[in-house]
Amino acid sequence: MSDLYLPRTAVIDQRTQESPTIFTLRMQFEDDHAQQAFDFSPGQFNMVTLFGVGEIAISIVNDPQDSHFFDHTIRVVGRVSEGMSGLRPGDRVGIRGPFGRGWPLDEARGKDVLLVTGGLGCAPLVSVIRYLMNRRDQFGHITILQGVKHSSDLIWREQYDIWSREHEVKVLLAADVVTREWRGQQGMVTELIGELNLRIGRAIALLCGPELMMMAAIANLRSMGLADNQIWFSMERNMQCGVGQCGHCQIGPKYVCRDGPVFCYSELADFMGTKGF
Ligand SMILES: Cc1cc2nc3c(=O)[nH]c(=O)nc-3n(C[C@H](O)[C@H](O)[C@H](O)COP(=O)(O)OP(=O)(O)OC[C@H]3O[C@@H](n4cnc5c(N)ncnc54)[C@H](O)[C@@H]3O)c2cc1C
Asked: How many CA atoms does the CB half-sphere of 263 hold within 13 Å?
């Protein structure tokens, strides 16, 4: 990448509406060489520019082996994401990235992997779930716990069904508020952790979602015997430069954009839940 601050143009290839406020954009770089050279690790993100409006950090949600495109799943929360929801195939965005440190794939290889996600917190984890599913023989048991506030908020339902039918894969869903058709549990996703029969010595936990949810999950996992270096999570902070220069996403001594967004609990235990630095 020649200039870290200069976005490259990508063209929207497909747009999928996942829920009333969540959509996925499949895109590819206008320049074929840039697309071929694009390589990322699950958990990394791009800074995506809506020209004339602004730039936001968005996780990459596909498996890195998909070399002809990359996917971003975006929730409408404000000005830029709302503008992006109007994009259609053929429209263009700017891309800087991939940035940050992704999930600890080497650490996870050969282990049982527990993935705990809340809300659209699932976006940074979806790429790693796809990675694990496409390389099933390299990992032990996989357990996916996904929580949402309302059962109708759950996206990728069919995908969860497909994953749950894989060998030694367990998917447990929880919603605070449920409709009659809901087949998961009612309650908080963190409550599901206590029901698990984890093989503590060979487990690694990957968490993503609201910070309070992750803190509760970490407390449960630690009380079950997981060591701090077996627990990893993805942090979210307002970001601007994406490359550890501007300081907007600083937490204590760390820049979430450059040193994270994925951290080991042992690295950031003292700073979780802190808003400023
Ligand atoms: C590493 C990383 C990966 C991300 N991946 C995704 C993703 O895959 N999909 C997705 O939809 N979103 C993702 N986000 C969040 C996304 O960057 C913000 O939602 C986006 O910046 C909102 O911009 P906006 O202009 O639409 O809203 P704004 O008008 O900027 O913000 C609307 C509200 O959201 C708050 N807000 C904005 N950004 C953040 C943030 N990063 N953390 C906490 N609060 C924030 C603002 O303070 C405000 O209250 C990610 C963020 C980070 C840091």
From this structure: 23
Q: How far apart are CA 95 and CA 150, in angstroms?
A: 33
Which atom of ligand 1 lies closest to the CA of 236? Answer: 53
Q: Which helix (H) or strand (E) holds 97?
A: strand 92-99
Chain length of the chain: 277
Q: What is the mean pLDDT of the chain?
A: 91
The pTM of the full predicted model, rounded to 2 decimals, is 0.93
Distance, CA 251 to ligand 1 centroid (Å)?
A: 17
Residues 118 and 254 in one domain: yes
Q: Residue written as tokens 């907007």? A: 248
Final residue in a domain of this structure, among 68, 99, 130: 99
CA atoms of 16 and 35, how far apart (whole Å): 21
Alpha-carbon span 126 to 185, nearest angstrom: 21
CA distance 69 to 16: 15
> Distance of CA 53 to CAs 26, 79, 243, Å?
20, 8, 21
Which of 172, 41, 58 has the alpha carbon at shortest distance from 103?
41
223-275 pLDDT, tens digit each: 999 999 999 999 988 888 898 888 898 988 899 999 989 999 999 888 876 66
> Which of 77, 79, 126, 211 to mutate to test ligand 1, by most ligand atoms within 8 A of the CB atom?
77
Quick check: helix, strand or coil at residue 4?
coil
Mutate to test the pocket of ligand 1, among 212, 236, 241 (most ligand atoms within 8 A of CB): 236
- Give me the pLDDT at residue 152, please: 81
Do both 146 and 119 map to the same domain? Answer: yes
Q: Is residue 70 part of a domain?
A: yes
Distance 76 CA to ligand 1 centre (A): 9
